[in-house]
Design brief:
- By secondary structure, this protein is an all-alpha fold.
- The chain has one domain.
- It has helices spanning 2-8, 28-34, 39-47, 55-82, 88-114, 124-132.
- The N and C termini lie far apart (54 Å).
Length: 134
């Protein structure tokens, strides 16, 4: 009977229970990717263990927060410049292009992060790297 169980993995007397219960939770890649969905999961990952103990997740959380801050600052500046007479139309069009650029950058970072690649945004990534460092 022992040989039958070891060969087939089937125990006719009852279900087998693994020696260790598998860990549940997010993988590092999933947590890093979720940090980019909005800045709220990024803040949660920075505040809770075990996510705040992993450098990769801290890096992506900080990069997500800094990307959000950069987007908000650029949008505020474009809104202010958009209220200047005769330049409002130009800055409105430029604002749409910049918004599209941020969206494409966000998609690239999100896809690369979920695929396990570390993608560092040129200026923002350096700040995030310093914040995530030990």
């Amino acid at each position: 009977m022992e040989q039958f169980i070891s060969l087939t993995g089937f125990n006719p007397e009852g279900a087998t229970v693994p020696d260790q219960t598998p860990q549940t939770g997010l993988s590092d890649d999933a947590a890093s990717g979720i940090a980019y969905i909005t800045f709220i999961p990024a803040i949660i990952f920075l505040a809770t263990a075990p996510y705040n103990q992993k450098r990769l997740i801290r890096f992506h959380s900080w990069q997500s927060i800094f990307l959000t801050v950069a987007y908000v600052v650029v949008q505020i500046a474009l809104t202010i410049l958009g209220h200047i007479p005769f330049l409002g139309l130009i800055f409105g069009f430029v604002g749409m292009l910049i918004g599209l650029g941020f969206f494409i950058l966000w998609l690239i970072v999100l896809i690369k992060t979920f695929n396990g690649q570390m993608f560092k945004i040129p200026v923002i990534g350096d700040f995030a790297d310093k914040q995530a460092g030990n």
